[in-house]
Design brief:
The chain is α/β, with parallel strands linked by helices and about 375 residues long. The chain has 9 helices and 10 strands. The chain folds into 2 domains: about 1-180 and about 275-355, 3-Layer(aba) Sandwich (Rossmann fold), CATH 3.40.50.1820; about 185-275, Rna Polymerase Sigma Factor, Chain: A (Orthogonal Bundle). α2 links the parallel β7 (about 145-150) and β8.
């Protein structure tokens, strides 16, 4: 397993601005001449999909669904992240150019949007284009399977629409065709929590921790939380000031993210979630982008997912079927909600094997 940093061509962004210079971090495992499986990570993930600390390590290895003895496994750090890709922490990273609307100043209670202090908007289309640049740099013209969960699932769909001949199969886990108002509402609250921190933009540690806590609630489901912590309190007995274990778990998750992730990069990834729409027209692309997809698809939902509802994955498969694509739908059954694609390893292994066995689409 190796990690390398690639220098890539300037990347124009869908919403305006250009990422230049442009670099990305790539993790690879397996033979360089083997069939390629491209893995796309989620919101705060990184390029290291396998090995110690890898986000999908339990399904990667000899004899597992993603076997580096038979396949070339590749994962690219998403654009705007802070694990080796071009990101807001870089000098010269594009900033937002939008100005406040004309007219009176916003009244008290209007949400914060200090454009001059925010990084340029990144979308899954931008992140997909950056990944395609990385594949070009690696000399990869054909991908047996592209797969990822959550934001990674959304980027997966954009990849298949941007370059249909390159991708034979895809397996988006817990994704959707377009971000729902529910997703946008949750992200709005997280974003405003972060921007309201008096330390923004230099040191919004508490705001970032609270934004992450809100996100973690949306990533889980009540049955899983009850199994983990129920109504247990920390301490020898009941006392008004003794926190419940679920509260200390949330605080721990918030502090973990503060220790490892940049606040402005986090905003970039929230923007990408909000602006996902695989049917939004793209420059130089005629017609419905989803109608360009030829990759066979296994769209996987999670039955207790409260963020990307399982119906979203079903609709993805139905929309592709209506366009003549071989598409199947499956569900992970789990008490753990959205995060089940990072927890239910046995089910995930079987579904990845099923995805690799789909009839190939793309160009022969």
């Amino acid at each position: 397993m190796i990690q390398t940093t690639l220098t890539l061509p300037p990347l124009p962004l869908e919403g305006g601005g250009v990422v230049e210079p442009h670099r990305t971090r790539v993790w690879q495992a397996g033979p360089t001449d083997g069939p390629v499986v491209l893995l796309v990570h989620a919101l705060t993930g990184d390029a290291q999909a396998g090995g110690e600390g890898g986000w999908w390590a339990p399904v990667i290895g000899p004899g597992r669904a993603l076997d580096p003895t038979t396949h070339r496994l590749v994962c690219v750090n998403n654009l705007g992240s802070c694990y080796g890709s071009s990101a807001p922490t870089d000098a010269g990273f594009p900033r937002r150019t939008t100005q406040p609307p004309p007219g009176p100043a916003p009244q008290k209670g209007h949400f914060t949007d200090p454009a001059a202090a925010l990084p340029a908007v990144i979308t899954p289309w931008d992140q997909a284009r950056a990944i395609l640049q990385a594949l070009d740099a690696l000399g990869i013209s054909s991908v047996e399977l592209v797969t990822g969960g959550s934001l990674g699932a959304c980027i997966t769909l954009c990849l298949a629409a941007l370059d249909p001949p390159r991708f034979k199969r895809m397996a988006p886990f817990a994704g959707c065709l377009a971000a729902s108002p529910w997703i946008i509402a949750l992200n709005h609250t997280a974003r405003q929590t972060l921007l309201a921190d008096p330390g923004w933009p230099d040191d919004p540690a508490r705001g970032l921790a609270l934004a992450r806590q809100l996100a973690m609630i949306s990533y889980r489901a009540e049955p899983g939380m009850a199994m983990r912590d129920d109504r247990q309190q920390v301490g020898d007995g009941w006392a008004p000031r003794d926190p419940y274990r679920v509260q200390t778990w949330l605080e721990h998750q918030g502090q973990k993210l503060v220790a490892r992730f940049d606040a402005q990069a986090y905003l970039c990834q929230l923007d990408a979630m909000d602006h996902h729409d695989v049917q939004r027209p793209q420059p130089g692309m005629a017609g419905d982008p989803l109608g360009r997809v030829t990759a066979s698809c296994l769209a996987v939902g999670i039955d207790t997912d409260m963020l990307y509802l399982p119906a979203h994955s079903a609709r993805t498969a139905q929309a592709l079927q209506a366009r003549g694509v071989h598409a199947e739908h499956a569900e992970i059954h789990s008490p753990f909600g959205h995060d089940a694609f990072l927890i239910e390893w046995a089910q995930l292994d079987g579904l990845l094997r099923r995805a690799l066995a789909l009839p190939p689409g793309g160009s022969p």
